[in-house]
Automatic annotation (TrEMBL):
GO molecular function terms attached to this record: 7S RNA binding; GTP binding; GTPase activity
Protein name per Swiss-Prot or TrEMBL: Signal recognition particle 54 kDa protein
Enzyme nomenclature, EC number: 3.6.5.4
Record remark: domains: Composed of three domains: the N-terminal N domain, which is responsible for interactions with the ribosome, the central G domain, which binds GTP, and the C-terminal M domain, which binds the RNA and the signal sequence of the RNC.
GO cellular component, one term: signal recognition particle
Family: Belongs to the GTP-binding SRP family. SRP54 subfamily.
Subcellular location: Cytoplasm
One GO BP: SRP-dependent cotranslational protein targeting to membrane
Source organism: Methanoculleus receptaculi
Assembly notes: Part of the signal recognition particle protein translocation system, which is composed of SRP and FtsY. Archaeal SRP consists of a 7S RNA molecule of 300 nucleotides and two protein subunits: SRP54 and SRP19.
Amino acid sequence: MLETLGNSLKDAVKKLSGKTVIDRAAVDELVRDLQRALLSADVNVKLVMQLSQSVKKRALEEEPPKGMGVRAHVLRIVYQELVRLMGRPGEVSLEPQTILMAGLQGSGKTTTTAKLARYFQRKGLRTGVICADTFRPGAYDQLKTLCDRISVPCFGKPGEPDALAIVREGLSAFRRQYEVIIIDTQGRHALEENLIEEIIQINEIAHPDHRWLVIDAALGQQASEQARRFHEAIGIDGVIVTKMDGTAKGGGALSAVAETRSGIVFIGSGETIEDLERFDPDGFISRLLG
Ligand code: GDP
């Protein structure tokens, strides 16, 4: 996971070993290496520029704390700036709540909906799922099959074209009985107007406590655009990055997080219903920098 990025970052910082002062040339070289590593991991250009400017400024201006070597000091700056880029981890409470899922087709939204249901069920919360994806044939069956395996109820009406009607009915059927309600919505291959229009309307009638965006870790620069559109439409307050078990570079997803000014709430790390992890930015970046 993100190994290439991790190795390039490590190499970039390693060059500072043995140096007792950091001069401009060394910082320039470090920043160039950082830029190369982040850009090839698909992190958005604007973010890379912001990060490298902060690293450069701080590395040149800030004195290392007493007893800290130059390399450790710069490593710490890089680390802090990367944490800032990623944002704080998104909040996940165990209060009763309604969660609206957003994302394009193929992002892993349906699988993640079931994984989340499993997560809250394991925390002892009565959880129900609503399938409001009226666009993709078979969406309800897919979600129902996953939910059946964990004995979580799945509300849906295959054949009903009106997603809003499904959400209204589902909520009134579930609200009294269930503490956590997760609404899966339609996705499309592209950011079409009807998709955005529909999720705005669902958001208005459901008043969800959270609006989480599901992003495939393999997405490159388009991730920012997706995040921006969904964020403008409904105000995304958490991002779930799926397929982190794959070979994906992950930088696109980081850019998406920055775009929504939210944080990563979970990471999808496999195809089974248990493959969902809470996101820990410190651990994540420590692993990247080694
Ligand atoms: P949707 O169209 O967004 O609802 O996407 P699906 O939930 O149907 O997922 C698309 C594909 O991605 C399926 O084959 C899932 O098994 C797979 N998938 C989803 N999340 C993950 C993940 O975290 N890791 C891996 N390896 N595959 C995933």
